[in-house]
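Sample pair:
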Amino acid sequence: MAGNRVELLTITGQLSNPEDYYHRRGVFLTARVHPGEPVGSWMMHGVIEYLLSDKPEAVYLRDHFIFKIIPMLNPDGVIHGNYRCSLVGCDLNRRWKTPIKRLHPEIFYAK
C-alpha cells in the first residue's frame, strides 16, 4: 500500500538443464506477516544462511528443491511500526481464506 517492495528470494541448486526446474518440488517460506514479531526475521536469516551453506544436508536440499522465500511479507507494517496489521488496519493472517487479487483500503472497512 505504501509502495515498499516485497522481496522474493529463490534458492536452488545449479541446473544443468533448465527443464529440470519444472521437476523439482517447491518450498514456500515467509516471515514477518505480523510486524511485531521480529523473531521471524532472525529465523528467516538462519534459514537462508543454512540453505546457502556448504553443509551436505543443505546441498542436498538445494539439489532437490526450489525454495521461494519472502523474508518480510508485511514491509509496510514493519516500516511504520505496526504490531499486527497492515497500513489499512487489516491482520494479513486473516486474509488467507479469502484472498483478493488487488488490495484496496476500502475493502477492509465495513460500509
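The chain has a mean pLDDT of 82.
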